[in-house]
Write a structure and sequence with these properties.
Helix content: 25-40%
Structural class: alpha+beta
Strand order of the largest sheet: 3-6-4-5
Largest sheet: 4 strands, antiparallel
Shape: globular
Radius of gyration: 27 Å
Number of helices: 17
Length: 518
Amino acid sequence: MNDFTRNMPLAAFDPHSREFSCKYEKDSEPILDEQAEDWFREGMAVTSNDLWPDDRDYKRAASLWKKAAQKNHWKAMLNLAGLYLDGRGILRDTEQAVVLVEDAMKMGVPRAYELMGRYHMNGTGVQQNATRAYAFWALAANLGDAEAQAYLGGKLNATYDDANGSFWGNKSIALQMLRCSYAQENAEASLNLGVSLNVNGKYEDALNILHDGVRFGSKGSANYLAASFLIHTELTGQHVDQDRAERYKAIGDLLRLNPDLRLPNLDKVLPLPPAVLPYWDGDKQTLIDGAKPVKTASLDDIKPSPASLRQGRAHIPDGLVLPDEPQGGHLIQHLHTDAIISGFWLAQLAKPYTPKQVAWNAAQVPMYYALGESFTAPEDITKDDGVLRFHYLGTPIPKSLAERYVPDWRVPQGVLREVPVPSRELRSSGLLPAPATGIWHGTIDPAHSLSKVFNLWTRQAYVEEGQSFPDPRERGLDISPKDIQWQWLDQANQPLPSGRKDITIRNFDPADTAKNHP
């Protein structure tokens, strides 16, 4: 059966079609299993673009994403397919990559169809076929995939058809596709749409969309605006501004290094004219840290340790942890011997050969044995499994709240900042002017038809007191400001003695917070 596979029947791509119905990929993406999501996030953290290439652990990521893929986590499936293609952390296997993408296609994931289009264009694991590639991209775009919409929108955004078939003149549909993708905060669509509007004399709209492109992670938009502010151009109102150009250029440099970055709070560090720029210390990272999303954090967020939730021998009281090095040194004992010291011991097969044995070793947790207690064989281990050893891990020691605190997975990935809880709770309807300066996080009722599209962890904005909150309708989302609830997260820029405001960064520090924690 060829439905939803590499060989599925496809409608041919028609570059002169006059019909396009804007759909959003979030509406079609399957719900993710929570445990699989944890594995996916851990894999993202250990392969972050914020890490030096040699520090990225693709082998660990491959293992985590394999487990997540078994629970139908489509993001992990597509990431794992990428590892199979490149042979990073796993043996290269293009067939396995294609199979994973097919599995995601069967789940109805729009991005999977876009990826299958790329495979056909490049001949990756399938026979190279540009006609089928464009057909897959057209299907993906119609399903709501923002990448496919941006790509095809760019290809159709010409005034004539290229003789070699590399672009076509279908501006009406091109702009519809680009605006649909832009509404989904796609970086490439923002650049293409902004440049197109600039060329056609719609300067104010173009400037705002290119500025949004920087928020969405478009290095191209950042570099385009950097160049534009260095010359007299209609896009910037004939306004030469070297300071703004320098900041856009610096941001573009860091977006090139870490394409995972999103900068919704860009106006904290680089507002559009005529706003006065806040003082900047010249460090590129200050611009990124000020503009990236934030999340409030508190020591009260610390969850009970997994060991404290276990029963019997495996229970370790909350607030206690096993030491990095066991007291008295490393000890190993064998089955049916008596413990020569009280403490926690970890059972491990000496030579695990089969996948089942490897999995058994990985599933074991430390168990408490008192002095003189005998080490007995677990019920699921037989003589055929080989030698079983017990490794001494020590006795639990206290660990402070600050030491127990684990940051959000996106912090080590470099795409999120954790900040202290604001001194007061402040919320506002999107219809009202902002009652305070700072970073605001917006949400709509989960029952709203566009809640999956709007309710993102990056849905933030830096707004000055008295200014209007962002209106989603300006980006093409049919959401009334009255339906949006904005929550204040503080992080307002503070004035210097000169009166000029400074880019103020206040991060959550577990150690400092612990001093005042009851």
